[in-house]
Amino acid sequence: MVSNVRIWLSPAGLCATFVPCILGCKVAQDSGESCCLPFLPGAMIGLRRSMRNKYRIDIFQQQSA
């Protein structure tokens, strides 16, 4: 529980909560895209997909019981 509070109170957590467009701009720049990308309709979905491909995150993983 304490680590969740620390993450939320971090600068990135506060930024994501109160000013999501600035966080989107930072994430886009970190991935090598233009800072204007988050302001285009549907662009954040594409950015999420490219990051999942880059870091090989499988969203359809079966969780074993």
What does this 3D model show about the protein?
This protein has one domain. 60% of the residues lie in helices and 0% in strands. The protein has 4 helices and no strands. The mean pLDDT is 76.
| Total domain modules | 1
Q: What is the distance, rounded to the nearest whole angstrom, between the alpha carbons of the first and last residues?
A: 24 Å
Average pLDDT score: 76
Kindly estimate the percentage of residues that lie in beta strands according to DSSP.
under 5%
Number of helices: 4
Task: Report the radius of gyration as a whole number of Å.
Answer: 14 Å
The largest pleated sheet is described as: none
The residue ranges in which pLDDT falls below 50 over 5 or more consecutive positions are none
Class based on secondary structure composition and strand pairing: mainly alpha
How do the SSEs run, as a string of H and E? HHHH
For the secondary structure, the number of strands is 0
Range of helix content: 55-70%
What is the overall silhouette? globular
Which key terms come to mind for this protein?
single chain; 65 residues; mainly alpha; 4 helices; signal; (Atlantic silverside) hypothetical protein
Topology of helices and strands:
Blueprint: H1 2-9, H2 11-18, H3 20-30, H4 43-54
Short structural description:
The protein has 65 residues and is mostly helical. Helices cover 60% and strands 0% of the residues. The radius of gyration is 14 Å and the shape is globular.
